[in-house]
Amino acid sequence: MTIIEALLLGLIQGITEFIPVSSSGHAAIIENLLHINSESGLPFEALAHLTVLAAVIGALRKEIKKLLMEFCRSMYDVYENVRIYFHNRDKKDARRYKKVISNNYRKLFLLLVIASIPTALESYILQDMTRLAGDNLLAPGMGLFITGIVLLVADFFPRGKRIPRDISYWTALAIGLIQGLTVFPGVSRVGITLAVCLAYGFQRKFAVKYAFLLSVPVLAGSFIAKWGHLSGTSFGWQIWGGYVAGALAAGIAAYFCIKKMTKVLQNRRFYGFSVYCFIIGAAAVAGSFLLA
User: Fold this and answer.
1) 248 CB contacts (<8 Å, ≥6 apart)?
2) How far apart are CA 112 and CA 110, in angstroms?
3) How far is Cα 151 from Cα 132, in angstroms, rounded to an integer?
4) Confidence label for 41 from pLDDT (cuts 50, 70 and 90)
5) Where are the bilayer-spanning segments (predicted)?
6) Where does the pLDDT of residue 243 fall: very low under 50, low under 70, confident under 90, or very high at 90 and above?
């Protein structure tokens, strides 16, 4: 992979990561067109996921800080409840227990954790199939068609009003299961997750925030998995320089894209993204037959 190819892939990765048009689909299409070996691109993918993760944390730092603070407070309340239990048992007292999930941020933290578990398991189980699907143009093209259809249908969902306190843990589990299937190239994680959240009646602003926050464990897990495959391999500093440059381009592009797309996805319909997915998907499918 040359530095130009790394920069191109990095920019596309960063721009499309938080637009509902599938970053993995675009990456697979470009890698096939430029004949970039997926194995040699693993270091770049790992670094790109790390920089995009840093971009998400930076862009959503206020939300993430609140989530972590409330998580710490909830753990303290759990500790206090254990103390109250032993006090009541020993003193024959009846002190009231503290409510652990006492606000929306504590509930949101749990919803994120529950959704992330099935996603991580499916990603691990399906990783070999995902790698094979990315080695041709047909699979990402079909994945983009699926994304386009889902986005088109999502525009007809009525506006929901549900926020964390209204969401069940079973709903979070279902979202995580469906999100796990978006590991296939062309199937947009943000797009599918948003559509499912809206189908469950999420308030649109909350649906966007939930989908973006879910990218934190997804990106972290993807970085760890890809980095794990690099044990025992070595590359020259020139190659690593290209990878780092491309990864930095991905992170910078992702940071500014998150800021923009947070507002766009909250207020606009998905029709334009759907049409785009159909066009790029059709081009990829056609290319798979023409270049065969």
Assistant:
1) 10, 51
2) 5
3) 25
4) low
5) 43-60, 108-126, 138-157, 210-228, 240-258, 270-291
6) confident
